[in-house]
Amino acid sequence: MKTLLRNLAIALIILTITVLAWLTDPTQQDPCESINDDVAGVLLGDPDSAEGMETRALGAAAQCDRTKKTPPPEPQ
Q1: What is the helix (H) or strand (E) element at residue 48, kind and residue range?
Q2: To 10 degrees, what angle do helices 50-67 and 35-44 make?
Q3: Three-class SS of the chain
Q4: Which residues contact 34 (CB under 8 A, 6 or more apart)?
Q5: How many CB atoms are closer than 10 A to CB 53?
Q6: Is the pLDDT of residue 41 over 90?
Q7: Is the N or C terminus of the chain more exposed, i.e. has fewer CB atoms within 10 Å?
Q8: DSSP 46
Q9: What is the largest CA-CA distance in the chain?
């Protein structure tokens, strides 16, 4: 019984580390870097299926504009 509990504890620790590593992956691209690609896809895409893509692109653009940090103004 102790062996089973120890193995379950080890498996839980490994699973937790794996999930945390996956959630904090530094190699993921910033979605705001390619926002122009989404807008271009809407403009160049099929007009029949453009409504959903347009909504997504506009929502993503608004989200990126809201979260974009601007540097503080330089003191004069």
Answers
A1: none
A2: 160
A3: CHHHHHHHHHHHHHHHHHHHHHHCCCCCCCHHHHHHHHHHHHHHCCHHHHHHHHHHHHHHHHHHHHHCCCCCCCCC
A4: none
A5: 16
A6: no
A7: C
A8: -
A9: 71
Tell me the C-alpha distance between 47 and 3, whole Å: 62
Task: Mean pLDDT check: name the lowest of 7-16, 21-30, 64-73.
Answer: 64-73
Contact assessment for residue 32 and residue 67, using Cβ atoms and an 8 Å cutoff: yes
Scan for tokens 């504009």, then name that residue. Answer: 65
Residue 37, pLDDT > 70, answer: no
66 DSSP assignment:
H
CB 38 within 8 A of CB 57: yes
